[in-house]
Structures are given as structure tokens and as C-alpha cells.
């Protein structure tokens, strides 16, 4: 994969810090705004990126680049991804995918028309622990209660209270706890249990944005409570509770660093099958393999999952 990056924010820094761990990934180019040109130049120098641009059009016209990583504010995902696809590039788009399911379907159609692939970058469903937790559900089921918690006191929250509104707290730019943090919980719940029968969101609103909130997903035989907070501190623990036992894990639902199976019969054991210490290595390893081999079936499976998540988000924002 010959990757062109659009953006220079924290998530780009994260990816570049572990890019050398991803086989067959070539850092070909990066495009930033003119205001962030110095940042882009510094990143290119520090991580061996061949070319820098301050105009996305120039990046999209670079014939050496075959895949674009869209890592811009949430509200810009759709237009940047669409432009990249129309320039015959594969696209990896950061979470949350786009604003609406309709936009997601449109991007997928453009990708199909251009014989390109598009995938959402969401860490947890590509982790080995996720696959093992999914397998373990049969050992503790039937499952009736799910509690997923991603609480992370935002480094920008104090400034937000003082009136400085960063993109992660700007609802016009796709900010807020639902889109920034609860998106991980939604991906996890949809991946493990499928599409819910109903969705209800109860947010805490400050300055017009949800700084925290509780999302309830109702299934025929279980209830899931998804907690996300950018305005609170907590030692996070998530639970999947069944008649025969419980799976629980501490920390971010985006990293799934380890988990424990606690059986009613008495056995309790911790596990960690993740191959890498950084959450992004597994997902980008998967993306490189799928795009380099043009694995349409696998990428379509990822898209179907992302589309279901978009539909859940739409219901959450509607109530």
C-alpha cells in the first residue's frame, strides 16, 4: 500500500509512531492545510514521508499514491473521502465514518463504480481480543446485560469550559461524546450482538454539545447500556453478563487491552491475545492486506458493519 495521508492531528501522529510495524505500508505523501504546513513538513522529515502537500487536490492527483487515509475533523470525512474516490484512490476513513447512512451508501457506490475499496478505521473490531471475546460469548450465555464504558476526561475540556471550542466539542464539526467516544462502544456492541431493535440516547448537554451521555440499545433478549464521557473521570470497567458467567475488561473499549472470563461454576481467568501493544497496528495491517489483494468480500463485510453503526448513530441523534 502506498499511503497518502490527509490531516496532521493526533490520530495521524499515532499512526506514524507505529507505521514501521506494519508490513508493506509505504508512507508516500501527506497533505495538510497551509496553516499546518510546518507540522506536515516536520512529520514528513521525522517519519520518512516522501512528499508533502498543502492542497488535497495535488495529493489526489499523485499517481504514486494508491490509498488515502482520511484523518480530518469528522464533518469533513464525507467530502474528502468522496474526492479521493473520484480520483481513483482507495480510502481508509477515520471513525465516525460519515454523518449519515445515506452518505456512506453514496461513497460505497462511488467506490464500486471506480473499482476501489473504502473502509472505516475503527480499532476495536480488528483486535485479536475482540475475536476471542466474541467466541467466548457462547460460554457465558445466554447474555442479558451489557455495560460498555468509555470515560475519558478530555484534555480539551477545561479550555471548553473557558469558551475555547475545539473540534471534538463542536457539534457543527461532528464533535461530542457520542461521535468521539461512544462510537467505539457502538462498534463493539454491533459487532458482538448485531443491530438492536431500538436505540435511545440520553445526553448531558453543555454549550450545545453532548459532553457525556448514556446510549441504550434494546435487543430481544438483552439490554445494552453504552456510556461515554468527556467531562468525567473514572476507572473504566465494562461487563457482558450472561446466565453462565461474565466477560469483563478494564480501560478503553477502543483498545481492549485484556479481558477476564468469570464463570458461575467458579473458574475465573484473564486473557490477552492482542499481538501488538498499540491499538492501530492490527487495523492497518488488515487494511494493507485487504487493499493490496483487493479483497472485495472482506471490505464489503466491514462496510456492512459500518453501515449498521451509522444507522444506530442516526437513531441516537434523532431522539
Automatic annotation (TrEMBL):
Protein's name in the database: Oxidoreductase
SUPFAM superfamilies: Glyceraldehyde-3-phosphate dehydrogenase-like, C-terminal domain (SSF55347), NAD(P)-binding Rossmann-fold domains (SSF51735)
Domain Gfo/Idh/MocA-like oxidoreductase N-terminal residues, every copy: 2-118
Residue ranges annotated for the GFO/IDH/MocA-like oxidoreductase domain, each copy included: 139-247
GO molecular function per UniProt: nucleotide binding
Native species: Lactobacillus pasteurii DSM 23907 = CRBIP 24.76
Amino acid at each position: 500500500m502506498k499511503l497518502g495521508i490527509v490531516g496532521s492531528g493526533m490520530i495521524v501522529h499515532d499512526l506514524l509512531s507505529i507505521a514501521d510495524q506494519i508490513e508493506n505500508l509505504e508512507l508516500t505523501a501527506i497533505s495538510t492545510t497551509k496553516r499546518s504546513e510546518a507540522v506536515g513538513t516536520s512529520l514528513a522529515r521525522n517519519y520518512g514521508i516522501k512528499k508533502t502537500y498543502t492542497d488535497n487536490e495535488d495529493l489526489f492527483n499523485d499517481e504514486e499514491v494508491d490509498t488515502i487515509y482520511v484523518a480530518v475533523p469528522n464533518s469533513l470525512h464525507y467530502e474528502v473521502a468522496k474526492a479521493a474516490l473520484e480520483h481513483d484512490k482507495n480510502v481508509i476513513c477515520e471513525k465516525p465514518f460519515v454523518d449519515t447512512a445515506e452518505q456512506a451508501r453514496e461513497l460505497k457506490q462511488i467506490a464500486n463504480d471506480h473499482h476501489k475499496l473504502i473502509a472505516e478505521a475503527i480499532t476495536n473490531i480488528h483486535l485479536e481480543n475482540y475475536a476471542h471475546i466474541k467466541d467466548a460469548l457462547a460460554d457465558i450465555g445466554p447474555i442479558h446485560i451489557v455495560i460498555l464504558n468509555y470515560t475519558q476526561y478530555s484534555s480539551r475540556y477545561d479550555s471548553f469550559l473557558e469558551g475555547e471550542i475545539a473540534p471534538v466539542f463542536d457539534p457543527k464539526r461532528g464533535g461530542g461524546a457520542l461521535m468521539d467516544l461512544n462510537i467505539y462502544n457502538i462498534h463493539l456492541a454491533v459487532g458482538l450482538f448485531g443491530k438492536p431493535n431500538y436505540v435511545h440516547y440520553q445526553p448531558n448537554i453543555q454549550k450545545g454539545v453532548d459532553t457525556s451521555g448514556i446510549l441504550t440499545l434494546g435487543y430481544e433478549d438483552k439490554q445494552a447500556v453504552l456510556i461515554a464521557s468527556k467531562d468525567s473521570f473514572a476507572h473504566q470497567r465494562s461487563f457482558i453478563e450472561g446466565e453462565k458467567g461474565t466477560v469483563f475488561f478494564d480501560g478503553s473499549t477502543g483498545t481492549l487491552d485484556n479481558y477476564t472470563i468469570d464463570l458461575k461454576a467458579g473458574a475465573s481467568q484473564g486473557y490477552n491475545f492482542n499481538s501488538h501493544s498499540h491499538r492501530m497496528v492490527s487495523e492497518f495491517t488488515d487494511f494493507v492486506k485487504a487493499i493490496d489483494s483487493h479483497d472485495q468480500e472482506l471490505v464489503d463485510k466491514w462496510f456492512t458493519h459500518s453501515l449498521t453503526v451509522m444507522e444506530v448513530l442516526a437513531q441516537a441523534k434523532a431522539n
